[in-house]
Amino acid sequence: MSDWLRGRDERVALAFGGDAVRFGELARAVDAAVLPSGRGPVGCPVGTDAVDLVVTVLACLARGRPVVVGADQADADRVADALPDGAELALTTSGSTARHGEPPRLIARTSASWLASAGPLAQLADVGPADRVAVTGPLHVSMHLYAVLHALWLGAIATDRLDGASVVHATPTRFARLLERPDAPRAAIVAGAAMDDRLRARVAERDIRLTEYYGAAELSFVLAGSGGSLSAFPGVDVELRRSAGGDELWARSPYLALDVVGGEMRRDDRGFATVGDLAERAADGGIRVLGRGDAAITTAGATVPAESLEARLDAIAGVRAAAVIGEPHELLGERIAAILELDDGVSLESVVAAARAEFSPVELPRRWFVQELPRTDSGKIARGALRAAAAAGELGDGHP
């Protein structure tokens, strides 16, 4: 049986789309799966049925065939010669699907690099075989695929249904929305972006057991905890290193990917790697992640991390979600523009007034927009799409 399938044959393993598949049935389906001929990588495109995707992934791992999740067979064939030796899982990242016949950007890793983190996560989140684990996004997204494989490793049930679930994996945005449900699961594993204090307060009010973690497709788990500042995930060495934009977060662990196909994985000769996220030491000794360095905005000679500013905007009453981008400006270099989703009945003027009272003149956005925010399949704000819309003049005139 696969290293990932550890439940008893008679127990339900997957409950997706109203169908239930038991561990024994899943193991037999994996053994019987028909893969494309040859020894090359197998494509598993976006839109693949959840159970079929899991069967394909496990069958490829069992037979020594790399599986390219989020790409079709034509793309898998294109990247065959570019995959590093030992690659078993090749995962597309948000917004990286192939265009115009070009191969997608892929994170290539071993199955062992994910398996190594299964036990530590189970202990941190206090989850086990009795749990029913809900995922809140499509399985071609790496965090959701890992969540399902982790549930199978536990011997638990993985499902796309929130009702009856005891644990949920979600981004902060999707987690905030499910908190509106009276039947929200009693435990949550949240990642993909920083949580704000307002959301944590709502979690505490509902008495939900919370596990936060910071990671990246290239690095897997890096930090974990249950508050605003996090500590190193078990097995991870962390360093903060000075860069032009601030302190970059570097990690060394058995969980790192092998390489990035169609891109670059920044490593050093000591085994550390980074995706360029900025971080700072908190007063309690933990680490607070500020966001991607390449998302920082340089305005009036200062560097403002976009994700840190977004978290502070999210904390203003009436703001459902916020994104900030830098727009070219002749005098400032870049000016900060804020795009907001607001609760019903909340005025932009009240939000701007609250921001003026809270933010420094450098941090205060100079243009404001109210509209629905574009998001990736994993639920993250698609900042690149917003930049493109701003450059094309599609956001409108905004409010000063």
UniProtKB/TrEMBL annotation:
Family matches, as Gene3D superfamilies: 3.30.300.30, N-terminal domain of ligase-like
Protein name as it appears in the record: Acyl-CoA synthetase (AMP-forming)/AMP-acid ligase II
Classification of source organism: Bacteria, Bacillati, Actinomycetota, Actinomycetes, Micrococcales
GO biological process: fatty acid metabolic process
Gene Ontology terms, MF aspect: medium-chain fatty acid-CoA ligase activity
Organism encoding this protein: Agromyces flavus
SUPFAM superfamilies named among the record's database cross-references: Acetyl-CoA synthetase-like (SSF56801)
Domain AMP-binding enzyme C-terminal residues, every copy: 309-380
Keywords: Ligase
Family to which this protein belongs: Belongs to the ATP-dependent AMP-binding enzyme family.
